[in-house]
Design goal:
- It is a single chain.
- The chain has 95 residues and is of the alpha+beta class.
- It is built from 2 helices and 4 strands, in the order ααββββ.
- The strands form 2 sheets. It has a two-stranded antiparallel sheet. Strands 2-3 form a two-stranded antiparallel sheet.
- Strand 2 and strand 3 form a beta hairpin.
- Helix 1 packs antiparallel against helix 2.
- The radius of gyration is 16 Å and the shape is elongated.
Length: 95
């Protein structure tokens, strides 16, 4: 009889992390929430590096994060003008 698998596919981990990092709710700016997201980012980046799957990330903007601070703010609503004033660097999505 074979043993049950004890590993997680990187795509499942990536999808879970992206869902958590992009979850938008009131109170998402609280320090404990930022710390949880940063811990998840650290773990995800280590896992992605270990399997050679680093494709980068994008910051989530004010159209994607509306109830708390976004990762980037586009000025005039579009690229290339942007600011990181009043933003949260843990608001990102990995490719």
């Amino acid at each position: 009889m074979s043993k049950p698998r004890k590993t997680v596919e990187i795509d499942i981990l990536l999808n879970y992390a992206n869902g958590y990092l992009s979850a938008d709710w009131q109170g998402g700016d609280a320090e404990p929430e930022k710390c949880r997201r940063q811990g998840l980012i650290d773990m995800l980046e280590a896992a992605l590096h270990s399997v050679g799957r680093t494709r980068g990330y994008v910051y989530l903007d004010q159209t994607q994060i509306t109830k708390s601070k976004p990762g980037i703010r586009w000025l005039d609503g579009q690229a290339p003008s942007h600011t990181f004033h009043e933003t949260d660097p843990t608001r990102r999505r990995y490719a």
